[in-house]
């Protein structure tokens, strides 16, 4: 029978990169840490780590076992959290990742309100344009926008939003855009994660679906919606951005929505969470809370 504490020590060694660093993190001696890992390898009958003078490395078996340990330890922690909840409300740690823009505007305010309802719950929010791996980086929930790629994770639909082609008035003074043809010939600002070529299915005012395709490669590229917004505000070209992000700039006259009678495909907002046998109550509760906050404009 595997010892969960021993698994936790093995994971700590992998994360820290050495027995010495793991011992400091765990508050134990290096000898105790080394002994537990050796005992684990003995019980399994395989080598998990390759030891060198500089840094430890995982064997192939160790890599597979490490990933399973992460899931097993997370499951165990989730079960304990739910047992504690029965007596004290939600507790433990809720770790969430979002894009910086949607996180700041929507998710962080929701987390602040959720925290007030569950004061024993510790919340960690990480904002990044990079799509983190939920298991290896130990996130409970990831909020993802756009088209959802195939994934082994579970996904809960939170909401959907419109995307708008926008440009600054000074750019439009130099390069008027009054048709799809002119829009296709514009200087485009694109997200670096967007598939190439730049093309979308667009609904015309006559309710016809047409394939819109930008003629040339993007003039500028950025790795976040905030970067694309900044480029557009400075008159660098046309960007296709979420309506919720550009609404203030349009209202202030800093940006113009182009071809307002055309519709670009709506994008979805999903909450992704690991596909484990036991979904923790804190995850279910926050997803329900966020969906309600978005629906009511809270």
UniProtKB/TrEMBL annotation:
Domain of life the protein comes from: Bacteria
SUPFAM superfamilies assigned to the protein according to its UniProt record, in alphabetical order: Periplasmic binding protein-like II, Winged helix' DNA-binding domain
Domain HTH lysR-type: start-end pairs: 2-59
Keywords on record: DNA-binding, Repressor, Transcription, Transcription regulation
GO biological process: DNA-templated transcription
Keyword Transcription regulation: yes
Entry's Gene Ontology molecular function annotations: DNA-binding transcription factor activity; sequence-specific DNA binding
Family membership noted in the UniProt record: Belongs to the LysR transcriptional regulatory family.
UniProt protein name: D-malate degradation protein R
Native source organism of the sequence: Serratia plymuthica
């Amino acid at each position: 029978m595997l010892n969960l504490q021993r698994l936790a020590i093995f994971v700590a060694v992998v994360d820290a990169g050495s027995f010495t660093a793991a011992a400091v993190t765990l508050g134990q001696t290096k000898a105790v840490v080394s002994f537990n890992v050796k005992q684990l390898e003995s019980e399994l009958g395989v080598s998990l780590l390759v030891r060198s003078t500089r840094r430890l490395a995982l064997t192939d078996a160790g890599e597979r076992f490490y990933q399973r340990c992460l899931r097993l330890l997370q499951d165990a922690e989730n079960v304990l959290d739910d047992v504690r909840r029965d007596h004290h409300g939600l507790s433990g740690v809720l770790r969430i990742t979002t894009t910086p823009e949607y996180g700041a505007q929507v998710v962080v305010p929701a987390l602040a309100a959720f925290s007030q309802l569950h004061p024993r719950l510790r919340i960690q929010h990480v904002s990044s344009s990079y799509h983190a791996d939920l298991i290896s980086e130990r996130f409970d929930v990831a909020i993802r926008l756009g088209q959802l790629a195939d994934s082994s994770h579970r996904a809960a639909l939170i909401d959907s939003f419109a995307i708008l082609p926008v440009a600054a008035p000074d750019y439009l003074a130099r390069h008027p855009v009054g048709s799809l043809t002119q829009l296709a010939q514009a200087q485009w600002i694109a997200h670096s994660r967007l598939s190439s070529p730049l093309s979308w299915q667009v609904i015309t005012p006559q309710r016809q679906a047409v394939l819109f395709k930008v003629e040339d490669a993007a003039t500028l590229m950025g790795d976040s919606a905030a970067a694309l917004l900044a480029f557009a505000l400075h008159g660098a070209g046309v960007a296709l951005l979420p309506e919720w992000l550009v609404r203030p700039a349009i209202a202030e006259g800093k940006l113009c929505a182009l071809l307002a009678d055309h519709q670009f495909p709506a994008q979805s907002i999903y909450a992704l969470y690991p596909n484990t046998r036991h979904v923790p109550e804190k995850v279910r509760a926050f997803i329900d809370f966020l969906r309600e906050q978005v629906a009511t404009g809270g």
